[in-house]
Amino acid sequence: MTYDLVTALRPLLTAEASAEAHASGSDPGDLEQTVWLRLLERLQTHGPPSAPEDWLRRAVRAESRRTRRTSRLERPYGTEPADTATPTPEQRVLATAGHRALREAVARLPGRCPRLLQALLSPKDLTYREIAGELGISQGSLGPERSRCLGCLRRLLTPEVASREVRG
DSSP letters of 24-49? Predict the structure, then answer.
């Protein structure tokens, strides 16, 4: 029964919401959603309306008026909202823990990998030439060495990352 009611009222609601939304300064889709919600609430409490089309028209107009009233009371912020680029304390703690885990994993790598990856992760933003000079290897072998070390790091971290996933 509810499905039949929704199917029958959909075109009317779309038309009514499109007609009323402009006057209230709202989006027709938002207005439609709100009226569908009102209909579901009514179906749970009082059952279906006796004249569904009339009820729907009244509901659209009532929601349009309510939106118009509330939009008059809403004022934009005088300044920009809070800076979302600044990490929250929780984000900083998680980032610090992630960096620590990465540094610990890099330290467990074999051969020259720890020094190479530490140089690549350095805040100094070293060039390949500077890194090669610091490690005493040719600049041409730096790329393949980096690739091998990152592969080792990936294999080392995969079991740790996989074990932290939430299951169930």
Answer: HT--HHHHHHHHHHHHHHHHHHT-S-
Q: Are 67 and 26 in contact (CB under 8 A)?
A: yes
Closest CA to 59 of 27, 85, 33, 25: 33
pTM: 0.44
Rounded to the nearest 10 degrees, how much is the dihedral formed by the CA atoms of 21, 23, 24, 27?
30
CA distance 52 to 54: 6
Contact assessment for residue 31 and residue 60, using Cβ atoms and an 8 Å cutoff: yes
The Cα 73–Cα 79 span in angstroms is 18
Please list, in sequence order, all residues whose beta carbon lies within 8 angstroms of the beta carbon of residue 107, skipping any fewer than 6 positions away: 114
Q: 79-98: per-residue pLDDT in tens? A: 666 666 778 889 899 999 98
